Amino acid sequence: MARIFRHHVSPVKLTLAAADVLLIASCAFFAEWLRFEMLELGSFQTVTTVAAKLAIPILTFPILLGFGAYQSDAMGDLRVFGIRLIAALLVSLMGLAAIAYLFPVLPLWRSILLMSIVMSGAAVFVSHALFIYFAADSFLGRRVVILGAGAGAQSIIAEAKATPDAALKIVDVVAVPEQEIVVEWATSLPKMRDLAMHVNSLHCDLIVIGDRFEHPSLPIDALISCKLSGIQIMDQLTFFEEVRGYVNLDSVKADWIIFAEGFKGGSIFERALKRLMDIVTSVGFLVATSPVFLLCALLVKLTSRGPVLYRQERVGLNGETFEVLKFRSMRVDAEGDGTPKFAAKNDPRVTPIGGFLRRSRADEIPQAINVLRGDMSFVGPRPERPYFVDQLSEKVPFYQERHCLKPGITGWAQIRYPYGASFEDSRRKLEYDLYYVKNYSIFLDVLIILQTLRVVLFPHGVR
């Protein structure tokens, strides 16, 4: 895995992203040349014309990223990728048309824009199809041997299959003596000291320790030999962090959090930049959504009795509480007995307009005011109610560690996992929150903001 500003990025995604930017830029230049040839005009390049054409990939690529064109489901199903590609290109075309209108100095002809987008769509789709089917495994893929044939190995195999963009090819599972074997097709070596010879014969790039073993059970000398021969050795915790983007709670210990790289909360410069980004993003968000804000407020007022905005106590930075603002989506007596409850699927407490607000995430819009106040950040772990925090802190290890950063409107867990409506869901979302806390950077914040667009447009798990 490549690492960019502490965030682990698949080399397949990086390669495809670079190829897409190059293809879109090439199509822009080719479209201009082709259009000029049709009109029998001479083509010449100036700083302005080059800037105009480069504006096409500069705008289109973030929109592709935001629409989820590089997510695992899109990487594994060309139909999903095709739908997101078309949607992203249509939005890009509208955005570029607006730029051409607002900045007439840029020679962005409508015909050239249309030709660029059409050719870019075809080129990008074909390149993804060819790369996924023919090049991912052979060019950037890694051949993986799992050491251990227990339940941990089985979960690693499942995760590798569910993450085609990681391009991991499981070539063998080697059972450790005297362990319970769950993977039936695992290999049992006559002598564990032959491990190095075995994995080298398989042209292995990576060995993942699939289960938790005591050191006497591990072939330490053989693993050292493998490492010295250039094979990467990775434990289960690192595998889930790098490949799936979460920290596996079953493998986390306090000493790992203390000594692991990360968990720094960002430098003074990063914190200042994050606050500036919060203010700019929130103001821009409120201005852009002001018509929706007013419409939602009107609909809530007309369709149910009670206040438009719902104020609820939540736990924020360092465990301090604050009142979060949301458009009210439930009846005023939703918790008449005074006991907080998780929202359920088809929850009868939700008002008719509240269901729409939740599905569209429009009920979250007023939280931008919380960001401006400084209670929240635009990106961070979602704030939870004190009642649930107290219960989760007792049942879920390291739950309080998520409060070392400001809570956010959106976050890594929100774009990677469906709505959390149970203690088990909260536990799983904590695994993503811990990844965010460990690997926090402005770069990761920008990625999350862009990919939140996919969650809004293609809602999954909303309640």
Explain how this protein is built.
β7 and β8 form a beta hairpin. The strands form four sheets. Strands 4-3-5-6 form a four-stranded parallel sheet, with helices on both faces. Strands 1-2 form a two-stranded antiparallel sheet. A two-stranded antiparallel ribbon has the order 7-8. It is flat. α1 packs across α2, α2 crosses α18 and α11 runs antiparallel to α14. The chain is 54% helix and 10% strand. The mean pLDDT is 86. It is built from 18 helices and ten strands. The protein folds into three domains: 137 residues, no CATH class; 104 residues, Nitrogenase molybdenum iron protein domain (Rossmann fold, 3-Layer(aba) Sandwich), CATH 3.40.50; 190 residues, no CATH class. The chain is of the alpha/beta class and 463 residues long.
Structure summarized in a few sentences:
54% of the residues lie in helices and 10% in strands. The chain is an alpha/beta fold.
- The total strand number stands at 10
Domain module count: 3
Mean pLDDT score: 86
How much of the sequence lies in strands comes to 5-15%
- Tally of alpha and pi helices: 18
Q: What is the H/E string? A: EEHHHHHEHEHEHEHHHHEEHHEHEHHH
| Radius of gyration using CA atoms only | 25 Å
Unreliable stretches, pLDDT < 50, 5 or more residues? none
